[in-house]
Amino acid sequence: METVIEFIMKLFGGLIFIYMLVVIATYSAMFLFAFTDLRRQRRLDRRESDDRFIQAFYSKPVSILVPAYNEEAGVVGSIHSLLNLNYPQTELLVIDDGSTDGTAAAVIRRFDMVLAEKPVNPQISTARVTELYRSRIHPNLWLIRKENGGKGDALNVGINYARFPYFCTIDGDSILDVNSLIRVMKPIMTSGGKVVAAGGNVRIVNGMAVDHGVVSEIRMSGRPLVVMQIVEYLRAFLMGRIALSRLNMVLIISGAFSVFSKKYAIETGGYNTETIGEDMEMVVKIQRLIKERKEDAQVEFVPDPVCWTEAPQTLSVLRRQRRRWHQGLLESLWQHKKMTLNPKYGTVGMLSFPYFWFVECLGPMIELGGYLYVITAFFMGGIYYEYAVLLMLLFILYGTVFSVGSVLLESWSLNAFPKRRDVLRMMALSLTEVVWYKPLTLFWRVEGLVRSMFRIRSWGDMERVGATKGMSE
Amino acid sequence: MMAVPITVVFWAVVAMLSLLAVLTIYLFAARWVEDRKQEAAVAYVERNRIKWYRVLRGLEEADASLVPENEAERMAVEEIFRSYMKNLSDPEINGRIRGFAETYLAYFYKRKLRSRDWSTRMNALYRIEDFKISNLLEDLRKLDRKKLSAEETFQLLMIELQFEPDLFLERTERHLGKLTEYEARQLFFLMPDHLFEQAGKRFPDLEPVFRYALIEVLGMRQDLAKLPFLEGLLDSPDDETRIRALRAIDALGIRTPNRILKQAINSTVWEERFLAGRMLHRLHPGEAAVFAEQLKEDPSWLVRQEILTLSKKIYGAKTADQNDGEEVSGWRR
């Protein structure tokens, strides 16, 4: 019996050890990619390049789609930020997905909206549109009210009503920096249509001073849970996405801030209304379309343009969010499983899909197993104690070192948090990540996996605190 | 058995954390230096704001106190110049900025052009273009001979277009492979007329992407004399050339000749029919209605929508979009 237990413990320990080594090697490579990329642009005067792109003659007009479901707390601030954008030609479509709170009323009142007509090209079937309003103050601002059909359905309505060849999706609780649209559109404009989708960097707005939809002062939230998410976002966006983008292997660009070619979005059938992670699903479908048609097109992540979004402030809301994200990830990967290790899909199939399956999707199960293993091994003592120490050290190397490294890399290259105290705080919290935040999120992600297997689906609405609403709203 | 890996991993963790600690100290020290530079730059602006106003307005001569002595002061002078150039369009002020930059800043940029750091070189190229510094041409030529990024190449061409327009086309041809249509469009648009004419003469030899850019710019420049040329392109077997030519004709803002309209309306390419629909807005209502009749059952939704908007205009129905002439103008840009 003892030999069996010993064998199982050794086998499991060995598996986790190998997994950790593979993950650490992958993240190290991604970190190096991000470092070289950011170092190249670190000193670039971005105002100069922004100025050169701002001329209406050369830029492409964009329809901005803002799906909103019960976003009463943040939608007005979000619209203000979008009206402030430094971009020559946009139209702004707010799609109220059958909200049960005062979302529509707040928008109608604040922007003096009246019933209007707008041409619609119903290329994607959607839930019924009930009313359409246009602002008398800002004629390029529209509100489309529709029956509830989910975020994907709301975005599809937006695509049908959009008049421009590119559309940008922004969450109803998010705000954009004034130059973010011009920066995210830059690769699309300069590539001559080769870049068909681009995503920007998403940062957490909780704690910041916001005035009429503009982040007026960088202030870090006092809540460790929020600060930990800030670090997590930095790590994910700077390390993972930059590297994947350089290799044209991007499978996720955040739905909170991304731009798509309308033509491609329609050709993929629009947003999937059945999946939980419609943003990832759209990117995967576009990548699939590109590879199947053997087109020289690509999806790009741009680290500089910033979208500020509200993060969960309580464990229960964060749990629901992470569960949902993981379900969305698994559903997308499963839906397009034929791309996995399929040479027809190039690096997306051969590298990106295996990475997302192994590290992002199933990784939490192995890592959580690792945590349980460490606890069990400590109690068992003897040789297992050494295994436990080894694994714990790997967890520290993997979790803490990469998190602190990301904070430093961001601070060195983009300097989003200029106060030294904030940087130190993020670094100090990163050192504790491995003992509380990491196991919690791993557990919730595994929960998401289990719920996917049992087909338990719920959106788990996020309770907004109106972090984007700001002082003067 | 585990002793070796544990020791290795332990020291790896210690080494990584130590490295991060060192990097943190470096980062904070670098930030401290940067903050001091910013303070010095702000102090320079505060000290010399009024003096610069008088100098740039030509009320007094620049004296030695304005000459930047270090990086921070150079940054401050650049900020002052940028703000004047961005907010005022006065050739005399621009001339004074150029004179000062050529005398006192060119040396900085000469050094920066030799930097191994890409963003430092790019910033120098931006400043040379902004301040129209002409005495670094030799350095720019040297740079041109090196292996450059696409961004540097384009920026270099923008500068050469200002200072050596006659050599520009020859140089551009060397770099054609690196330029995108978007960049070609900017270069064509900024070209002096005689150069643009020369580029037009080489039209048949240009790569398609540059041909498209040139057609677009013909429309942007709104030169009516180019109508026959554009009309000639409508017989091209290439769909994209015909579409671009039609769009350029539309951008000329004239009443489109009937023969062009007829050809576009009968095209099998929906984009051409759509553009024809848009051109009908400039016709007399009665005349437009006759053409519109042919397109009102068009298989393309966009064409039908265009005709619907036109019909509302002709028959006086007022919709929310009627005042919004841009409704579909962004199509396919």
TrEMBL record, chain A:
The chain crosses the membrane at residues 12-36, 355-375, 387-408, 428-446. It comes from the Bacteria. The keyword Transferase applies. InterPro entries: Glyco_trans_2-like, Nucleotide-diphossugar_trans. SUPFAM superfamilies: Nucleotide-diphospho-sugar transferases. Residues 63-198 form the Glycosyltransferase 2-like domain. The keyword Transmembrane applies. It holds the Pfam family Glycos_transf_2. One of its GO terms (molecular function) is glycosyltransferase activity. Keywords: Glycosyltransferase, Membrane, Transferase, Transmembrane, Transmembrane helix. Belongs to the glycosyltransferase 2 family. This is Glycosyltransferase, catalytic subunit of cellulose synthase and poly-beta-1,6-N-acetylglucosamine synthase.
From TrEMBL, chain B:
Keywords: Membrane, Transmembrane, Transmembrane helix. The chain crosses the membrane at residues 6-29. This is HEAT repeat-containing protein.
